[in-house]
Design brief:
alpha+beta, four-stranded mixed beta sheet, 2 domains, 6 strands, 2-methylcitrate dehydratase PrpD
Length: about 450
């Protein structure tokens, strides 16, 4: 494909040229960690209502030569498997996240399950899958750094990362990947209304839909479909109408440039990343509370982006869904002070609508602390929060998180990754099954066909 579109050419040529052999050992390990983490998040979210709905719809379209709906033995088309598995991995809010000064942020692991669906369908090796995952992350994260447009969802980056990762596994060359990218870019631009105000179950499905669109674009390109000309830099293209300005990539991972997958953060709690420092601080304060009824006031001091995004607006004090609750600082602090440690169960209906929690919510104030904002806006990023609980007795209890006091940015050990995997798969996998699945995923680079993986997760 001859294209005068600079961005299209840059991305498709980079995708075509990236191989497993270009990855250093640390990058291969980082990819394995995120595969393990994302599979764990999928198992943890399997019972969610939007995940069930997605499975039910996919069941109408079985395809024995397609890709597995992970957790079951059902196979469907790879694009529908991408939708179901991408939605399910996102639902419980335990997949990785990206916070970088000036970036759009997002959840780059949204690309992982769609790319896995393509890998399974194509019967690729673990090494080919790893390279495609690193590619998908690289595309997502470089776009996140280059584009921050109000009104558009970061899931748009997932669509492009998944398209190029899947297209590479389907055997497309640079010209085919350029067509694939164009088919992904022009028809699929998600709006951020999915994450604004009172949230619905589409919050998780938006990620699955973007992944599905990326895999579908790769399938079409593989079949010979041509995409629109000049998708980024054309007169009515993506740059002017979505990015709303010139998009520039100074570099991509490889050679002497580190791959961006290393910059993503593994979550220690099941909630929106911007609320996690508030949870960690509240857990420390909660230890000294004699009874929730003894609380007079709670002050949560956070960085400005957290205050604006998760601590402003009536919906954060009146959540009516799990999706709104896990994006609300007042809710997660209240639930943590009651439960002592926040878990996925802290968002179930019994807690969401409990009179005790509803009585506590109006007592919570969220304020921006300039010092914490400054720490958030520099490198390395620090997520600082202080929770102060004033008791009716006059006593004050304080919990602090961030930096050396425990930070979302801290790298987790392999043992911590495994502990999280075990916690999220408990009840779905047996003890022996958990060990077998972990062993399989840790040796991903030795697997000749990733289609061997889904049977280890057949628990439904």
């Amino acid at each position: 494909m001859q294209t005068g579109d600079r961005i299209q050419s840059q991305l498709s040529r980079y995708a075509a040229g990236l191989t497993y052999e270009q990855l250093d050992d640390e990058t291969v390990h980082a990819a394995k960690v995120r595969v393990i983490d994302t599979f764990a998040a999928l198992v943890g979210g399997f019972a969610g209502e939007p995940c069930r709905i997605a499975r039910d719809v996919a069941a109408w379209m079985p395809n024995p030569n397609g890709a597995t709906i992970v957790g079951t033995d059902l196979k469907t088309t790879p694009d529908l498997a991408a939708f179901v598995n991408g939605t399910t991995a996102r639902y419980v809010e335990m997949n990785d996240v990206y916070h970088w000064p000036g970036s759009a942020g997002g959840h780059p692991s949204d690309v992982l399950m769609p790319i896995f669906a393509a890998a399974e369908c194509a019967h690729t090796s673990g090494r080919e899958f790893i390279a495609a995952v690193v590619l998908g992350y690289e595309v997502y994260l470089r776009l996140s750094d280059a584009v921050r447009t109000p009104g558009f969802d970061a899931a748009n980056f997932c669509c492009m990362g998944a398209a190029l990762g899947a297209g590479k596994l389907f055997g497309l060359d640079a010209d085919g990947l350029a067509e694939c990218l164009s088919i992904a870019v022009i028809p699929n631009n998600a709006l951020n209304q999915a994450r604004t105000g009172h949230l619905s179950m589409w919050k998780a499905a938006a990620a699955g839909q973007s992944g599905r669109a990326g895999v579908f674009a790769a399938l079409l390109a593989q079949a010979g479909m041509q995409g629109p000309h000049m998708p980024f830099e054309g007169k009515d293209g993506w740059n002017d109408h979505v990015a709303r300005g010139r998009v520039t990539f100074d570099r991509f991972g490889g050679s002497e440039t580190a791959f961006k997958i290393h910059d993503t953060l593994i979550k220690p709690r099941a909630s929106c990343a911007t609320t996690i420092s508030s949870i960690l601080a509240a857990e420390k304060a909660a230890a000294g509370i004699p009874a929730v009824e003894a609380i007079e006031k709670v002050t949560v001091e956070v960085y400005e982006r957290a205050k604006i995004g998760m601590g402003t607006g009536e919906h954060h004090w009146n959540p009516d869904s799990r999706e709104t609750a896990d994006h609300s600082i007042p809710y997660v602090v209240a639930a943590t002070l009651i439960d002592k440690r926040l878990t996925p169960a802290s968002f179930e209906s019994e807690r969401l609508w409990s009179p005790k929690l509803r009585a506590l919510l109006p007592k919570i104030e969220v304020v921006a602390e300039p010092e914490f904002t400054e720490a958030y806006e520099r490198l390395p990023v620090e997520h600082r929060t202080r929770v102060t609980v004033a008791l009716q007795s006059g006593e004050q209890l304080t919990g602090y998180a961030g930096g050396e006091a425990g930070d979302l940015s801290q790298r987790q050990s392999d043992a911590e990754i495994e502990e999280k995997f075990c916690a999220l798969t408990q009840g779905a996998l047996s003890s022996e099954g958990t060990k077998a699945a972990l062993t399989m995923l840790w040796r991903l680079d030795a697997i000749t066909d990733v289609a061997e993986i889904p049977p280890f997760f057949n628990f439904a």
